[in-house]
Amino acid sequence: MGNHAFSHRDSAQIEANGMTCEQVERQLEYFNAGFPFPQVEAPAQVGAGIHRFSPEQQEALLKRYQSWRGSVVKFVPASGAASRMFKELHRAKDLLDRDDQAALSGDAAVFFDRLREFAFYPLLKNTGCDLSDRRAILKALLGPAGLDYNAKPKGLLAFHAYPQGHRTAFEEHLVEAARYAEGGDGSVSLHFTVSPEHLSDFENLVRTVAPQYGQRFGVSYRIDFSQQNPATDTIAVDMDNRPLRREDGSLLFRPGGHGALLENLSDLHQDIIFIKNIDNVQLEEQLADTIRWKKILAGKLLEVRAYIHQSLKDLAICDSPLKIKEIADFLRQQFAIDLPQVREEEYAAKVRSLLDRPLRVCGVVKNTGEPGGGPFVVKEADGSTSLQILETAQLDLNDVRTAAHWAASTHFNPVDVVCSFKDYTGAPYALKLFSNPDSGFISEKSMDGKTIKMQELPGLWNGAMWGWNTLFAEVPAGTFNPVKTLNDLLRPAHCRILN
């Protein structure tokens, strides 16, 4: 620490962003030393870290949630730009700029062949571009004089076509939430994290569409927004780990990824929080499984939380050895927690500390090759075990044992989470206390033709929730319909051919 000399101007910039020089120094140390790899004990599998509910269990959990009356909110990270979706189209544009008669292949060829099937096709036509000119189409789709999709967030893109017109991904979250996140008083609460430059566009969309969907579903929407705190940004470096600077000499900071949204999440006051990515939506007529399983996961959360809260109340009265043993068995069965070796007089306190934590129930789907992290059993520093969602970048795949665990994994993480972070007294947990600062990772990105390195804070469902009690439950693959590339919008979950 302290090897990087910051000028007075640097220090002022760092402090203005709400950070300290010591925090930035620590980030630079991570670039040099890397993040420590977790010790993976095994992939979580059905019966060994992943729950598979029988039809009878599904019905019981479904009824439990449907009979519950409490406050609910759906939390959707929506600040990510859609630019990655258009990677292949940018390559095609470069090729066509050199030769407008060039033959295209792969995703670019599919895009032009099936252009009329995209929900944004009518909007593209309305730009007045020449639909026989491939360069003109790309300019109208991506450029600021047209739809400007390259600069917009995914939530504002036309994802789905309906006879009445198109819907954005943002709108589909409103439709979906009305079916499982109604709070018992006729209101449906949603919270979106967005970037400041797009906030007014989202607010304008809310004013236009929320009354329509509210009337249709008989609910009133409560929709609010927040932005990532600049204090959670991380410094960017070159390939030699030297801090990068902008043209004006100021240090270059980049958003710290989803993990930076822990502060936004902790500001919510509802009893139950559903978390889902902005691009994981589907056509309305295909929502039945998604709605059903959201309720099942919430029912499981309520079941487990009720046991936890009652047990903590019991322990507040008496730490009976019989109750402590019962809780230890519960931790093992529900969360795959094997307790560490501790002295007998410390055992009850350790059991209580492992029980008294924020809670999340995570849906996982069978691995069919989609990108994303997976569920694993991890050995902690104190010798206990825990369930964690791990990305490839967090693992030492040069280690034979770790690589074998990765290869043997059967499920992956679709970010299908329902959680609760109030203790048995109703007070919220201090979520930062349950985060693992050593679980971030380093990524590379091209900027102005040069490769730079950035640092991802511990991901919201990775390291930021490391110390939470985690329960994995298998859900149908049809509930997961991400849009990572533009042509994903041509999949059956997103595309229908309208006459």
Task: Provide a descriptive summary of the structure in words.
This protein is α/β, with parallel strands linked by helices and 499 residues long. The protein is globular. It has helices at residues 8-16, 21-33, 55-67, 87-98, 106-113, 121-126, 134-142, 169-180, 199-217, 262-266, 288-317, 321-335, 344-355, 400-408, and strands at residues 39-43, 45-46, 49-51, 72-77, 158-162, 165-168, 187-193, 220-226, 234-235, 253-254, 272-276, 359-366, 374-379, 385-390, 411-420, 441-447, 450-456, 469-474. α8 crosses α9 and α11 (288-317) packs antiparallel against α12 (321-335). The chain has a 9-stranded mixed β-sheet.
The overall pLDDT average reads: 93
Largest pleated sheet:
9 strands, mixed
Question: Which residue ranges are poorly predicted, with pLDDT under 50 across at least 5 consecutive positions?
Answer: none
| Amino- and carboxy-terminal Cα gap | 64 Å
Number of strands: 18
Which helices and strands occur, and which strands form pairs?
Layout: H1 8-16, H2 21-33, E1 39-43, E2 45-46, E3 49-51, H3 55-67, E4 72-77, H4 87-98, H5 106-113, H6 121-126, H7 134-142, E5 158-162, E6 165-168, H8 169-180, E7 187-193, H9 199-217, E8 220-226, E9 234-235, E10 253-254, H10 262-266, E11 272-276, H11 288-317, H12 321-335, H13 344-355, E12 359-366, E13 374-379, E14 385-390, H14 400-408, E15 411-420, E16 441-447, E17 450-456, E18 469-474
Parallel strand pairs: 2-3, 3-18, 4-7, 4-11, 7-8, 12-18
Antiparallel strand pairs: 1-13, 5-6, 9-10, 11-15, 12-15, 13-14, 16-17
Helix pairs in contact: 3-11, 4-7, 8-9, 11-12, 12-13
